[in-house]
Amino acid sequence: RFRHRMRRARVDMFLTFVRTTCARPLAPAERLTHAEATPRRLKLDSSQSATTTSFPSRTRGFALRTRAQANADDVSEVPRKKTRADVFESLKNQPLSGTKYKSTGAFQQTRVDDAKAQIVRFLEYKPRTRKELFDKLTIDKGYEAEDANEALDAMQRAGVQSDAAYAEAFARYKWRNSRWAAWRVRGALRQKGVDDRDIDLGFGPVFAEGGAIKIDLFEDDEDDDEDDDDVELDDAQLDTIMTLEQELESDSWRDYAKAGRLIDLLRAANLRERCRTARERYNEAFAMDEARWSAWIQDELANKTTGTKRERHTRCDELFARAIEECGRTSVRLHMGRSRNAMELEADESDRRALYETATAGPGMNFNDGHLIWQAYRAFELSWAASETQKVRVKALYLRQLKIPQAQSQATLEAAKTWAADAGLHNADAAFHEAYAVGNAAKVLREPYEARLLAVTSSHEGDAKLLRAYATYIDFEMASGSPDRVVHLYERALSSLPYVAELWRDYVLYVWSISFKSAEAASRTLMLRAVRMCPSSVLWKSVLELESSYDLYTHALRTKFRDPNDYGAVLTKVLTQCVRLDDWAKASGCVTFGFEQMAKDYSPNIMAAAAIHVLKELVDYALMKDHKTTVASFIDAVFAQLAERAPFKTAAEFVILRTDTSRLIKKTQKEVLDLYDVALQRGTVEPVGLSKKTVDEETRRLAGTAMLLKAKARYLSTFAPKKVRRFQRKDQRYGRCAAVRVKTRV
Questions:
Q1: Which uninterrupted H or E stretch holds 274?
Q2: What 3-state class would DSSP assign to 466?
């Protein structure tokens, strides 16, 4: 109910803003009528009454004649009434800045407006009394008492906050959970600053006369179970949640560590709607592991206020499908959960059988826990009426499972023989023993590798040893020639080591080698999975080799890397792809966007060093194109765009790279020297390799000036006279010959 009231209040505020914005300004005649000419608008003195109004210095006739004359003058000045088409035509090309537009300041945000927005943010997390909100505004946020009271009055008039509604919800909560009497609830509300009149209004629906509880109070009231937990939240926890949300929104949800922490805090605070939104935003950028998917599904099933039971299970089925596709292809837990959820949805027999078949091809091949999938599959088949078809299917399931190397193969054989005896299939034992022999032989070969994995996992020896154990096991499976088992083992390894880029890369190469005609599509899908789970520069460069879409470029450049060189490598790959496709506009946009992201994530010196390396790679690749004029204009535009931005404006390496590139794109000597002179006259150029913490500013600028002078002298030396250069070459040639003679004699 509180959320519904907030929605209504936000709608009312929006409609008020629209009405105020769209109001037609008064014409000059109307302004005169409202300001001066209308007697009813005159202010009354304290000694005057509304019936005996006198005009201080004018008679009534004089005032009316003045008003009539003013109206006639204004009407003659006011143009004809404009139609909507005329208004749109006049405003179409009118600028919003400059001399033609002057802001009236009518809609400038005040401290009261800021306080109102802060109140809405406070109430989004839990209900609060007026006194609590006043203390939060004045003490925690630093608002003046007058501004806080004015904002609170406006919010109460809009129905956003009410102490009476708070008293009612608090009374319900305390009586249901702690069986507090009316006098005790009243005392607690007084401590929270609630007035007795609001307490009486809130107690009306809850307590009868004399403090007795009303009998029909909690019938069909399931909504309160979800909202009551919000009452007792800690303020420090809520402040942490609000801070994390603001930081993630400003960073476009690129920090997976902060996003994971926010999800944990929202789940602990029982803010389920916000937690669901945070999970969706997190999953748009990153992949979630099995634990987070399981927690999400459990919360959806436990939330009884978001729809009927069937709607909740339908939503959970979608989450199960996403979780299995993303990280749980070998997860017994997720596949079993989806099968049980399908049973709750009363799915068709064929649909449920298809789910079990998918599970047998994935976690059903697991050496330790795969037997659970087969047991559930057989239980599903045995749940139908007994028939010959059922016997055939169950026998086929036993035979398929016995051929798979599993730790419980002996127990499976005994269960198969018992079932065959009960079903009257006395000739099935020979087939069971034959299938068991095949599976047991494969089991004996794999037991040492499984034992090694179990030992490393249980002893927590580290990811390096676990990766080595999986690599040895994968090599064995490749030698055995079973692609399904190799793929299954790669999936098992990635479920334990999802952030190892080399493992993902080897998996992609293997899928490429076995997919033949569908190799490109399968590898592309797998690589997109990989960069969501492990956003490594190595993986991103491989993905960009297979895909060349602007959305993918944007996704790659939005990824946050710890090392700026990794981000630079991805940006270089994106730019070379754009240049290869002759898409110069897209390349220019990627340069701007990529450098802006680098400026946000890294320190200026580190960012400048990585960015200059990217520019070098871009120039080298672009100069290999045939369109020399287009390339020259593109490179010149890129450098001109970056020249006045920090930290390029003060980077000596950037100035040197720009001048060297200008020489390569056939700029005149005067233009190149002007670039040097402008940088030298500025006097603020520094090497990006010198730290600002350890080297003072004067030393850094002297070093930058020296670098520029050396580069300028080297450039001027290329314009020496031809005779001098020929003599220099002759002297160098003579010196080399003399050196060779001396060396030969020795």
A1: helix 272-285
A2: helix
